[in-house]
Each structure stands twice: as C-alpha cells, then as structure tokens.
Amino acid sequence: MEVRVNSWNELQDQLFADAWRSGLQRFRSPYVFRGLSNAAYKLESSLIRQRGNFAELEPHLLRNFRKYAHRDIVERDTLWHWLSLAQHHGLPTRLLDWTVSPLIAAHFATAHLDSFAIDGAIWAVNHLKAHQLLPDPLKTALRQEGADYFTVEMLAQVVDSLKELDALAPPQFVVFFEPPSIDDRIVNQFALFSVMPDPHGVLDDWLQAHPAMWRKIVIPAELKWEIRDKLDQANITERVLFPGLDGLSTWQKRYYTPRS
Asked: pLDDT tens digits for 82-124?
C-alpha cells in the first residue's frame, strides 16, 4: 500500500501504525524501515546498481574484499560477518540497509538537501509476515531462538554460503538480520540488513505479490523542510548516526545551509 502524508502528525501516525502487540501489552512494531530521498528509487541492492554482469562479479567482489581486508576486523570468519562488514564499508553487495527506528528512516529520507525538490519515501515492511514465508530450515532456526530477526551467528548455522542460500529458492523470500556491532554507527542507527536468495532480486518487485506486508509512505517535497527541522530538534542527526568528526561536519554543513 502506498500512502502520501501531508503533515508531520500524519507521518507519525503512519510510522507507528500497528505497533500495539496485545499479547505483550506493549507497543512493539512489526515493521522495519528504509528511508529514501527520492520516492522513485526502487529497493535495489548496491550490487544491482553496479549494472553490467554484476551477478557474475558478486563472488569476486566478496573474495577480494576478504583477501585484502585485515582478518582481525571480523569476530568470526563467516560469510555473514564478512558481508555485513563489506556492506557497511560500501562494497556493492546484495544486502539492503534497514533500521528498526522509523525516525532514523525519516532522517535518511530528508538528509540530502539537493533532493528537497522531489518527493521522498519511507518503506515499512512487516518482518514478521516476511519471515512466515521463509523456507523451513530458516523458519525453524528463528522459531527455536524465539527471535524477531536473525543474527549473523544464527544465519551461519543454517546457511554457510550464498550458493546455499540461493539453493533454498524458489519460491523467493527475504531474510532480515542484525549485523554485528562493528562500530557505533551500526549501533546508533539501529541497523538491520535484508538479503534475498537471488543477486537479481529487487525487493519491491517481490513485495508487490504480498500487499498486506508493507506500506510505502511518500513524503511530499514541500513537507521535507518541516520534517528535517523537527528531526534535528529531536537529535536525529548525522552527529549521532555517524559518530565522529565526519558526521559532525556533515550535520553542521546541512544544518547551517540556508533555505533558498
């Protein structure tokens, strides 16, 4: 479902909709979020955005990343530790970045001032419903742990390689997992990754077949400044999400840019 919001309050209602869990008697949203500065962007992985023969290049990219990276920067030598690290540092992979925090997703939808003339969007995907469609080995592992998301350790116990992951399909599915706490950036961003068993897989194409699982919240261009200013006041900024001098500088540059 696609919904267009027209105010800050409408955005909050959409971001926190369906969060009440009667069994827990607590607000625990089943959704994970991804903010995009341009509503027209698809949920394509950075690997797909490489274009060309990207699927053939995937194993070479990861193999060479593992070869040249320092071995002591991952706590365990598993595919999922290395993929998480590679994605985190900008290597094209089939992973997509998500967050548990709807406000952090709103930050990424409004962080680029050069995109303020176009609509942005926040994708919200119900990970509980998505995981109900997992193949049995993955579904069993998640149920035995009683967890909402996989950890890299849990995934490594079931799937040791991308070939093993690909062999579990068809049908197509999506896995949401928590990366290891490599640094404060991952922790502060409440980060998650998604992965699909096909390097060509585009998540919004798969979601079209499951309309009850998601909503796309479109943020009109004319609303971006208000959202941005209110997120800054709430301390949802680069200074917090990208700890260090780079994040501090990016935040100040954006914060003190005049509205023209």
From this structure: 999 999 999 999 999 999 999 999 999 999 999 999 999 999 9
pLDDT of residue 71: 66
- Is the CB of residue 108 less than 8 Å from the CB of residue 76? no
Identify the bridge partners of residue 122 per DSSP, sorted by sequence position: 35, 217
Cα separation, 109 vs 215, whole angstroms: 15
* 227 vs 231: CA distance, rounded Å: 6
DSSP string for the chain = -EEE--SHHHHHHHHTTT-EETTTTEE---EEEEEESSTT-----TTGGG-SSHHHHHHHHHHHHHHHS-GGGSSS-SHHHHHHHHHHTT---S-EEEES-HHHHHHHHS--GGGTTS-EEEEEEEHHHHHTTS-HHHHHHHHHHT-SSEEHHHHHHH--SHHHHHHT-SSP--EEEEPP--SHHHHHTTEEEEE-SSTT--HHHHHTT-GGGEEEEEE-GGGHHHHHHHHHHTT-SHHHHSTTHHHHHHHHHHHTSPP-
What confidence tier does 156 reach under pLDDT thresholds 50, 70, 90?
A: very high
Q: What is the pLDDT of residue 2?
A: 95
* Bridge pairing between strands 214-219 and 2-4: parallel
Cβ neighbour number for residue 194 with a 10 Å cutoff: 23
- What is the reported pLDDT for 103? 98
Segments making up each domain of the chain, as ranges: 2-255
pTM: 0.93
The single-letter code of the amino acid at 82 is: W
Q: pLDDT per residue over 195-215, tens digit each?
A: 999 999 999 999 999 999 999
